[in-house]
Amino acid sequence: MARLKFYCDAERCIECNGCITACKNENDVPWGVNRRRVVTIKDGEQGERSLSVACMHCSDAPCAAVCPVDCFYTTEDGLVLHDKDICIGCGYCFYACPFGAPQFPQDGAFASRGKMDKCTFCAGGPEENGSSAEYKKYGRNRLAEGKLPLCAEMCATKALLAGDANVLADIYRERVIYRASSSLRRGVDLQKQNLGGNPGAGS
Amino acid sequence: MKLTKVSDRVEGTRTEVVGTPASSGVSRREFLRNSGLMGTTAALGGLVAPGMMRRAEAASDAPAKGEVKQVKTICTHCSVGCGVIAEVRNGVWEGQEPAFDHPFNRGAHCAKGAAVREHGHGERRLKYPTKLVDGKWKRISWDQAISEIGDKLLKIREESSPDSVYWLGSAKHNNEQAYLFRKLAAMWGTNNVDHQARICHSTTVAGVANTWGYGAMTNSYNDIHNSKSILLIGSNPAEAHPVALQHILKAKEENNAPIVVIDPRFTRTAAHADHFLQIRPGTDVPIIWGMLWHIFKNNWQDDEFIRQRVYGMDEIKAEVAKWTPDEVERVTGVPEARVRAAAKVMADHRPGTFIWCMGGTQHTIGNNNTRAYCVFQLALGNMGVSGGGANIFRGHDNVQGATDLGVLANTLPGYYGLKPGSWAHWARVWDLDLDWIKGRFDSGSYAKKGDKNIPVMNTKGIPVSRWIDGVLEDKDKVAQKDNIRAMIFWGHAPNSQTRGPEMKKAMEKLDLMVVVDPYPTVSAVMHDRSDGVYLLPACTQFETYGSVTASNRSFQWRDKVIDPLFESLPDHTIMYKLAKKLGIEKELCKHIKVNGDEPLIEDITREFNRGMWTIGYTGQSPERLKLQQANWGTFDFTSLAAEGGPCDGEYYGLPWPCWGTPEMKHPGTPNLYDGSKPVAKGGLTFRARFGVERNGVNLLAEGFYSKGSEIKDGYPEFTDKMLKKLGWWKDLTPEEQKAAEGRNWKTDLSGGIQRVAIKHGCAPFGNAKARAVVWTFPDPVPIHREPLYTSRRDLVSKYPTYEDRKSFWRLPTRYASIQAKDYANDFPIILTSGRLVEYEGGGDETRSNPWLAELQQHMFAEIHPRDANNAGVRDKDDIWVETPEGKIRVKAMVTRRVKPGVAFLPFHFGGVFEGRDLRSKYPEGADPYILGEAANTAMTYGYDSVTQMQETKCSLCRIQKA
Amino acid sequence: MNAYGLLWGLLLALLSTAAQAQNDTPPQSGIWIPNPGADLWKAVRQRGQPEPSTTQVQGLDSNQLINVAGEKFRDWRRERFIRYAAYLLAGVPVVILLFHMLHGAMKLEPSGRKLLRFDLYDRVAHWLLATVFLFLAFTGLLLLFGRFVIVPWLGLDAFSPIASASKEGHNLFGPLFLVALLWVFLRFVARNLPAWRDIVWLLKGGGAFGGKHPSAGFFNGGEKLWFWSLAVFGLLLSLSGLLLDFPSYAPSRELLVLALVVHGAAAVILVAFSFGHIYMGTAGVEGTLEGMRDGTVDANWARQHHDQWYAEMVREGRLEALSEAQENRAETTTGQLEEGRT
Questions:
Q1: Which residues of A touch C147 (CB under 8 A)?
Q2: Half-sphere CA count of B907, side-chain side, radius 13 A
Q3: Which chains sit next to C, with 3 or more Cβ pairs under 8 A?
């Protein structure tokens, strides 16, 4: 059985945030809710790397475990989806999620939370595939149309990949092999020998 | 059961199957298996999904009826030219699909490209013609607007001269609109017409064209796949051209190509580099000469290439010899080891490509910088080869096209210039009486050549970077009849230009301001006028159609996605309406069909096809472009050549020069000056543009010629006489002979001279050497000069700037008088500026797009922790950034991205002026989501010595807590 | 052993498991990151996230790649909290029931003479707090156990609106608890100041051992323990609840998780305590309920359970037969001692 996964290649990600706006575009996600985000570590320093993060569709999802109303379900492709008709907006999934994926629109007085919204892997929700009810609640169901999530399909540098976990692993392995030989030959070592220290510090 | 798709239900840590498998499961797995295979084969820079698939039948309860139509168009944000597939139903832009078969982007997009569908919403657009009455915006009709504006323009024309109206065009126009705009200005009778190329790559165009013939990117984004090394200077494509990184990283990973980044900032591009040289802003020439010093010292240069194809390298060597490692370190701040390592890596990995952007061009010595870059590539023999080249990434989506089509104060379309012969050529193309055109201009004269008065139509206009001085300068110091009295901002963001406070003054002094734009822009709010401002809603390029030229000179056809929103109109329709009011519509559209008020786009394309012989804008007919558009998928991702299919053998976008007539079916030229191919197949030589001999030295190529050339050496450009001398005249048809008599390859409207030259394997423009020394420029050999506002007073005497000039592009221009004063004590921090990935240009469009605006909510200044601590500033504090000419209030971003003593500003913000929020001044509902202080409110005086490019990369500032 | 002693034991057990939960490293089995050889993820997970880390997305802790507290929270909630809370909240009533069956109610032989114990303000404050507490406890427990108790019974679709209403009601009336709590605290704190005899009372298990009631003032040691537990846990409950009520003002996700842990633990402890309180106030000790219902208690009840207070009342001459209508505080009737009313 296929297990659908995201994978982000930090060597490729350039923090262009295209995945974020692609997601907004495809799913009409409102201001303040970001199903996907790009996190940059060591920002502005040597070793700066970025990763695009959204729901990782965990095999044993912590969000589902802590949900008081059991609104999550796992599809046969391994996607962790949820039912907004069941969700009560308590926020527990946000506390439990390792990746900060669940998002909550501000809803009503006292800044209380609306129903949770998160990445669906562009697979919609429990409503009928491609129905307008599904689109309103969860955004586009691309999977039912035979397409992959738009964030990955539109990634500027093909850093963000989506698909069968085994295929992604193969792609990644291939990249790693290329890079291992590549970095040796490109003379990164030369830089280290000649210059030492941290090139990011400039002069 | 409601949960139709439930198959597994996670219950604690156990997983048990309680549901039935969804019916769609099998097909979905099938799909993934397919995508998996393709993903593996195309792992590097390839696909992860199986291309386009038809959208599944809409479910029964979906209310939307009508068929989904897929429209192929091109992203309007940058010059990469990414393909976009829009899904439209019942005239509503419902979806955006990745264009996996597009040769440039393979479906990829940056934040802006992935958000273009928002143009179909346009919530913050300017919705109808609006006029400022007593400080309030008032809705008016199109007829009233055109009529009132026309009357005022005619009155100014009467009282002053046509030159008192400034036509500020746009790189956001498509080719046809850009051409029509230039023609409109010519019909109006002025050379005061310009656009953003002036302030983005004018120094590139001037520097590069004067080195080897054409002022454009020589290779292509895709050709970077063939590069063995990559050098980027003053360029941050990770933010400005993100999809270019797909090509760059492909070369890095597949070719082991080292990446060298030279920049004052540790940019997001630098984060992926192998060598990073952090220079002091404004020291491009020293760092390049510093690298060349090592190259020449170790004899890494390509001597054979230089002998055959380069003029003046010895003079360069003499200058480079002065740039010893010590001096380079003293001036740039980069130690020898790093410079040498970068030079060696470029020498060891050939061909290497050289990429630059506005970090190099926007300087008082911008033309020196760009020529130094060219010399570097010439020295290593990296020109005219696949994988090498000067890959100059242009800015706006159609800045290359608008430049080519002459929306410039110094030339007619096709870089013909403004000489009498140039006008005569275009009068023939337009089928107009040259005297009638002449009569449209001011009858006086603003300049002399010897004793002779130069007619106004042959005098360069005021460049867009200086329009404020055209307004504010004393009348007797401006070399035209009167000051500029009316500004027509046709797709222009004023906040992309320096000297904000003076611009505000200039706006307030004008008689008339007309803004034609999809958004009100900062032009609507920056000033404190209470009347005399008109806002006309233009539609975006998604609401019209036409051709667009990407950075790599490829033409792409854009289809119309949706009808114009609200009361907006396409630019060419507005131009025609205005021309009609001004009484010049018959001449403007003599051979262009007009439907209602809308000139037919295809006819405009065909018209410039008939005239743009210089740069081969002649072979791309609308039909050829549309055929290519329908067959995106047949073009190779690396070579851009179509393999099979209806476009077999053509290069994608028929990159110019696409010689001859469309019937000649030239495939376009993918890489300029590449002699390994016949000219007929896209090969080329360096252009013979600067004569055949100088000081007894041959300027033509020696022993080098393009493949299949019947002339096995250098040769000058083709003329009728040359054809006769060569005995090739008889190859012309009788009609061609008639048209070619007395003409050359640039002015023969039949294209016969070009056809015959190419038939014999020759480049119509000759085969010459590139010149490393541009003897017509202020600094023939590129040299370093300190910025006007420099922090290094110790270097001023050795590297002084130019003397002030009395009349330069009609205006007095200051250099030494500014540099003479020491500002470094009061303003100790170097101020530079640049781009953010989420926004584009002045940002009015992108800051009005909620999907983008949410990602950048505050204008900020990057400052080093050391400077922050010295100023008592913490991250996210409000600070004042103050230069000798202006001040802005922004948020501090404390980061090591910049060096101590350097601060960086992104320039896309606007709508706040010196701390004052101008939101209330926008027309209702048309204020962008995000406003912020414009960096250029603080940016200071300084203009390039050749093109009047503005200096935005080196100034001085002080930082204080607000 | 009486109910209070048992409650203490359970409380300690719960606290120790909670502490243990904090120290445990979470099991890694739960998450499979589809990222073969992703050094960066590994580094971030194992060595913590390198600084400075940024993102353009505005949101709570949006610049964190890995939420370390998440797995701890899940483990705490699913593996410990829900389980032990269930044991506790089911166990306490069972213990009380057993106790009641063995021990029976503490009988009261009414003397017929009444003693004013709680005036109107006391009673309103008490019942306000009690009502809010019961409402919050009920809705809170629904959210805690509903998935395991209600869902199998009614199904997801039926439970969701109940849960949603519970959540909204809980969030809406939550702050009222703090108000009621402060009122009760101010009203009763003077009478709940600890004294030596309270320790003795507690040590003797409130008279469960040895048969004779230990000495007690207005409130006995057990009641004071309840009061102070209520004050301390109630305050924790309120403060953590307020934070959870306005999550958008929280500075970090970890603080919210901490608040949730504190809120849950304090709530369960108080609910368990309240079982004892309710038992003692109703079926456990005859004559107690009427003190909070009518304001007066029987003199014999006072002598039996609060001998010192009774003595004081007698000394001050406040023992009287109050008419049911007379509900003002004792000042007005000072010295009007009436004896022999039958």
A1: 67-70
A2: 26
A3: A, B
Amino acid at B410: N
Residue B853 to residue B836: CA distance in whole angstroms: 12
Query: Quick one: tokens of B616?
Result: 């081969």
pLDDT of amino acid C299: 85
Q: Which residues contact C102 (CB under 8 A, 6 or more apart)?
A: none
ipTM metric: 0.92
Q: What was the pLDDT predicted at C39?
A: 62
The model's pLDDT over B765-785, given as tens digits with 9 standing for 90+, comes to 999 999 999 999 999 999 999
In this structure, what DSSP letter does residue C107 have? P
Residue with tokens 């002449």: B438
The SS3 assignment for B583 reads: coil
CB contact under 8 A, C157 and B2: yes
pLDDT band of residue B58 (cuts 50, 70, 90) is very low
Q: What does the angle CA A8 – CA A9 – CA A12 come to, to the nearest 5 degrees?
A: 125
Task: Give me chain B's average pLDDT, please.
Answer: 91
The model's pTM: 0.89
Structure tokens at C92: 């306490």
**A20 in contact with chain B, both atoms CB, cutoff 8 A:** yes
Q: How high is the pLDDT of residue B345?
A: 93
Instruction: Inform me whether the C-beta atom of residue C67 falls under 8 Å from chain A C-beta atoms.
Output: yes
* pLDDT tens string B929-943: 999 999 999 999 999
Interface subset of B 876-895, CB within 8 angstroms of C = 895
CB contact under 8 A, B334 and A64: no
Task: Round to whole Å and give the CA distance between B60 and C295.
Answer: 67
Phi, psi for residue B221 in degrees, rounded to 5? -60, -45
Q: Do A21 and B64 touch (CB under 8 A)?
A: no
User: C78 vs B857: CB contact, 8 Å cut-off?
Assistant: no
Q: Tell me, what's the pLDDT at C17?
A: 41
Dist CA B338 CA B526 (whole Å): 45
| pLDDT tens-place string over residues B853-898 | 999 999 999 999 999 999 999 999 999 999 999 999 999 999 999 9
Alpha-carbon gap: B120 to the closest alpha carbon of chain A (Å): 11
CB A126 within 8 A of CB B6: yes
Instruction: Establish if A71 touches chain B: CB-CB under 8 angstroms.
Output: no
Burial (CB < 10 A; 0-12, 13-18, 19+), residue B943, is buried
Condensed to tens digits (0 to 9), the pLDDT of residues B512-559 reads 999 999 999 999 999 999 999 999 999 999 999 999 999 999 999 999
**Going by C-beta distance under 8 Å and a sequence separation of 6 or more, which residues neighbour residue B80?**
B104, B105, B221, B241, B243, B244, B393, B550, B551
Interface of B with A in 808-867 (CB under 8 A): 837-838, 850-852, 854-855, 862
Do the Cβ atoms of A10 and A39 come closer than 8 Å? no
CB–CB of B66/B89 below 8 Å?
A: yes
CA distance to A199, B34, B250, B389, per residue, from B348 (Å): 21, 41, 19, 16
Chains that touch A (3 or more CB pairs under 8 A): B, C
Sheet order of strands, B92-98 included: B68-74, B83-89, B92-98
What six digits make up the tokens of C216? Answer: 């007690």
Overall average pLDDT of the B496-520 stretch: 96
- Residue C196 contacts A, CB cutoff 8 Å: no
Q: For position C53, what pLDDT does the model report? A: 87
Task: Write out residues in chain C with pLDDT < 50, as ranges.
Answer: 1-37, 321-342
**Residue A80 near chain B (CB below 8 Å):** yes
Token pair listed for C170: 């809980």
C109: which residues sit within 8 A by CB, 6+ positions away? C300
How many C-beta atoms surround the C-beta of residue B598 within 10 A?
16
pLDDT above 90 coverage of chain B, percent = 91
| Rounded Cα gap, residues B122 and B124, in angstroms | 6
